[in-house]
Amino acid sequence: MAIKVIAQLREVKLGKNPGKKFVMRPDLYVPIAEKKVFQEAATHSGISAGVIKAAWDAAGEVIRTWATEGHSIPLPGLGTMRFGVRSKAVERLEDVKANLISVRRIIFTPNVDVKDELKNTSIQITCLDEDGNVLKRVTSGDSGDIEDNENGGNTNSGSGSGSQSGNTSGGNTGGNTGGGNDGGEDLDKD
Q1: Bridge partners of 83?
Q2: pLDDT per residue over 87-119, tens digit each?
Q3: What is the C-alpha to C-alpha distance for residues 83 and 117, in angstroms, rounded to an integer?
Q4: What is d(CA 58, CA 83) in angstroms, rounded to the nearest whole number?
Q5: pLDDT digit string, tens, across residues 72-82
Q6: Closest to 142 measured CA to CA, from 129, 124, 115, 159
Q7: How would you classify residue 144: left for phi > 0, otherwise alpha for psi between -120 and 50, otherwise beta?
Q8: Which residues, at least 6 apart from 134, have a Cβ–Cβ distance to it below 8 Å?
């Protein structure tokens, strides 16, 4: 498997260097139906899809309840999930008010196996002109660094040894895929 990305030539009007640039975005996948997930899990486990769905629904209720009580919840085989907030920092006690909170957040921290899977998955980039015509295809040869949301958005190389392959000559080395700090402080509940 590979993660599919599109780099399309677009007119960029904002920023320090406006002009025509290849802008990367994920290639949109078709969402998988919930029913298909349960059927696939049933095939892999030997447990009926109905039993898996009932167990998953019950686990979902427990996860929502505990997360809203401030717990960090283990998601077996995936990582942990918790709720948090992004807010402005103030110097004086009397300035601490609820309106300092700019957004509520769902924070997912993948386990090592999930990070290693992502690190070792190649990325296929399809380069398109402004009209959507394919110019070339590139397969990743990057280091596989993973953004660490628990560490201020810094990247780390995970714990596994990644193997990359493919041609990277002429690929787009710039771009921002999201994240970023809005200038606020993270006041996440643990």
Answers
A1: 106
A2: 999 999 999 999 999 999 999 999 999 999 999
A3: 25
A4: 19
A5: 999 999 999 99
A6: 124
A7: left
A8: 126, 127, 128
Tokens of 3: 């993660």
> Which distant-in-sequence residues (6+ apart) come within 8 Å of 122 by Cβ?
2, 3, 139, 140, 164, 165, 166
Helix, strand, coil abundance in the chain, percent, nearest 5: 25, 35, 40
Q: What span, in angstroms and rounded, lies between the C-alpha atoms of 136 and 122?
A: 17
2 in Cβ contact with 121 (< 8 Å): yes
Q: How far apart are CA 82 and CA 65, in angstroms?
A: 11
pTM: 0.62
The whole-angstrom separation of Cα 142 and Cα 2 is 13
Residue 162: exposure state from Cβ atoms within 10 A (0-12, 13-18, ≥19): middle
Residue 83, φ and ψ in degrees, nearest 5:
-100, 155
Residue-wise burial string across 22-37, b where 16 or more C-beta atoms lie within 10 A, e elsewhere:
bbbeeeeeeeeeeeee
Mean pLDDT of 135-140: 92
Query: What is the C-alpha separation between 16 and 173, in angstroms, rounded?
Result: 17
